[in-house]
Amino acid sequence: MAPARPSFETTAARLRACRICRDAPLYGAPLPQEPLPIVQGSGGARLCIASQAPGNRAHRSGVPFMDPSGVRLRDWLGLGEPDFYDARRVAIVPMGACFPGLDAKGGDRPPRRECAERWRAELFAGLPRLELILVIGQYAQGWHLGRMEGGLTETVRRWREILSEPRTPRILPLPHPSWRNNGWLKREPWFEAELLPVLKAEVARVMGTPREPATARAALTASATR
In 3D, which of 132, 44, 131, 38 has the Cα closest to residue 86? Predict the structure, then answer.
């Protein structure tokens, strides 16, 4: 008999006590501040936001996406804060669970590699009911989809193909909702016109909240004919 896999809640509790990136870093210098691993979810979650790493504001509050990026992301998803932060239905699993610090230009450093290597597979093993994973940014996309030609833009452009692949849970790639991507959003108007209606419909379906006038499948079909 195979050993029982740990629950998401058990793994998340162990992760929140993790200090690998500060006390025994495998890649580069130690984390420059006290670790505060941030993760959300439960074994019953059906939607997962596979993100990059908490930002500075999330680090200060201890709440994922409690910043302008989170406001934009919730708008993209069509979710208010009560549903977004409902751990019974929504898991938030970043590539790096701690704020990685700032680089010389004032931007966030990449997620710490130690975190995904140690915790990610175990966390997802505790999410057996997932139906949809929203894969945000190049680091999460690389982990969930493998390396793809053309980087983030081409990966997100292939969203119809990726979403339609026969697997469970389904995957939908997204750019990061950061203000730093405002230029990208202006250059890629198809994202708002074609992908966002499908995203909102898919999220409504998974969350069990009806959305009018189109179902998720109808929205996807309509987008594909444009």
Answer: 44
Phi-psi category of residue 181: left, alpha or beta, with phi > 0 → left and psi -120 to 50 → alpha: alpha
The label of the residue with tokens 């499908």 reads: 198
Spell out the residues 6+ positions from residue 152 whose beta carbon is closer than 8 angstroms to its own.
137, 138, 141, 173, 175
pTM above 0.85, yes or no: yes
Distance CA 174, CA 155 (A): 9
**Residue 95, Ramachandran bin (φ over 0: left; ψ between -120 and 50: alpha; else beta):** alpha
Quick one: 57 exposed, middle or buried, by C-beta within 10 A (0-12, 13-18, 19+)? middle
C-alpha to C-alpha distance for 184 and 94, rounded to whole angstroms: 22
Radius of gyration of the chain (CA): 17
Q: Can you give the pLDDT at residue 215?
A: 41
Go through the chain and tell me how many residues it has.
226
Q: Mean pLDDT of successive 10-residue segments in the chain (226 residues)?
A: 81 97 94 95 98 93 94 97 98 97 88 96 98 97 89 95 97 94 96 98 89 44 47
